[in-house]
Structure formats: structure tokens, C-alpha cells
């Protein structure tokens, strides 16, 4: 399933709209019911409006009604020269929206790494902090 999910993420990468950076990212989320939801990075001339691939995918999954415990595995791939991890904003978003121990498969075809959001982001700020108020 890992290979299939990476393949779907590379397919999604083909849908990236990245005329400014020319850096293409794709993501695929495997859900417990077997559904795969994909996302790509979508840039904008107002650069701050750009959406990363993994956020496109996780927002699509949530928009379809899926929630944290429905998410089984995540793949994030790029066409970069070196292996990349998710950006800081995506780490923050994923820390709230996917399980902390959910496998995250990273790849740029040449290199790959398996990780989790708990590994990528220690001492997370989240809902629990606001619940304490
Ligand atoms: N990008 C992602 O899609 N995910 C990340 O985690 C890192 C950055 C995109 C955003 C932008 O379109 C391009 O990569 C260059 O930053």
C-alpha cells in the first residue's frame, strides 16, 4: 500500500500549479475505508495565498467528511533535488488533523524517508492548550 500511495502522490504532483517556484509537490492520503484523497500545491501571484500539497489533500479529506481517526497513512512527494519534509505551516496543520503516529512517507524518487508528525514536530501547540483556558 505504501508504494501505491506514493504512486498516487506522484500522480497528484502532476496536477501542481506552480508557475512561480516551478517546484511541484503532490500528496495522497489513505483513509480507513480504502479511499485515497489527493492534493497538489496551488500557487498564486499573491504568494501568501499559495496552498501546499499536503494541506490541499487534508482539507479535501476533511471537506468530504473524514476526520483524524479516518486517516491511515500520508504520502508527500516532490520533484526537488533533495528530499524535503513538510513546511512549518503544514506541520502545524497536520499536527491537528492527522493522528500523531500516522505514517508519513516522503519521497523525491531518489531518496525517501518514513516519519510521523510526532517525530517531525515535538512539543506541539494545539487544541489542548486552548482547552485549558
Ligand atoms: N510546498 C508544498 O506544497 N508543501 C510543502 O510542505 C513545502 C512547500 C510548495 C509551496 C510552493 O508552491 C512550493 O512548494 C515552493 O515553496
Helix and strand layout, with pairings?
Blueprint (H helix, E strand, L loop, with lengths): L1 H12 L11 E7 L4 E5 L12 H11 L7 E8 L9 H10 L6 E4 L4 E4 L1 H4 L6 H5 L2
Largest sheet: 5 strands, mixed
Please, how many helices?
A: 5
The strand order across the widest sheet is 2-1-3-4-5
Mean model confidence by pLDDT = 98
Helix content: 25-40%
- Total domains, how many? 1
CATH topology: Cytidine Deaminase, domain 2
Structural key phrases:
21% strand; Cytidine Deaminase, domain 2; 32% helix; binds tetrahydrodeoxyuridine; 133 residues
Characterization of this structure:
With 133 residues, the chain is of the alpha+beta class. The protein has a single domain (2-131), classed as Cytidine Deaminase, domain 2 (3-Layer(aba) Sandwich). Helices cover 32% and strands 21% of the residues. The protein is built from five helices and five strands, in the order αββαβαββαα. The chain has a five-stranded mixed beta sheet. Tetrahydrodeoxyuridine binds next to helix 2.
Provide a quick synopsis of the model.
By secondary structure, the protein is an alpha+beta fold. The protein has 5 helices and 5 strands, in the order αββαβαββαα.
Amino acid at each position: 500500500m505504501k508504494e501505491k500511495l506514493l504512486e498516487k502522490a506522484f500522480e497528484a504532483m502532476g496536477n501542481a500549479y506552480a508557475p512561480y517556484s516551478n517546484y511541484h509537490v503532490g500528496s495522497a492520503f489513505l483513509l480507513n475505508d480504502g479511499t485515497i484523497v489527493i492534493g497538489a500545491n496551488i500557487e498564486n501571484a499573491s504568494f501568501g495565498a499559495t496552498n501546499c500539497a499536503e494541506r490541499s489533500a487534508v482539507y479535501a479529506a476533511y471537506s468530504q467528511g473524514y476526520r483524524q481517526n479516518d486517516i491511515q497513512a500520508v504520502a508527500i512527494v516532490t520533484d526537488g533535488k533533495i528530499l524535503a519534509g513538510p513546511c512549518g505551516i503544514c506541520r502545524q496543520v497536520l499536527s491537528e488533523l492527522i493522528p500523531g503516529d500516522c505514517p508519513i512517507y516522503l519521497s523525491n524518487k531518489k531518496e525517501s524517508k518514513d516519519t510521523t508528525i510526532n517525530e517531525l514536530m515535538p512539543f506541539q501547540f494545539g487544541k489542548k492548550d486552548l482547552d485549558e483556558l
